[in-house]
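Look over this today:
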Amino acid sequence: MKNYLVLLFGLLILCSCNDNDTLLNEELPQTWQLVRMTGSIANSETTGSDMAWQETIVFKINRKFVKTRVRDGATTSASGTFTPADPESGNIVVLTYNESNTLRASCSGDLTEHLGATEDGTTLYGTWNACDGPGLEYKRIN
């Protein structure tokens, strides 16, 4: 099953290699909302209020971001800087957090989180599912 997920993740990266590096060079600020979570178990997709938490990422004009998560009635926020990444890498944006936190959805041991985008630029997706985290998909709401 893990091999299948790694293959699927690789295909997603290949499909996302395009000119979306300008996605976050458009008008800012932009707010992206978590709209779908998937797990490694078949039929484990959740959306809307059925998700384990609600989350937004706000990309600001000064290359800063704020990620906010609401879980079980508690709101947690984390912030840092973002860098549009080389689309050849399959990542559209790299978030670098100011400090270690529970909101960083990443396989790496550092303070970064990598996001990709669908070819049409309407969905950002996390890469945490490559190491058994949930698949996270975000849609722009402004």
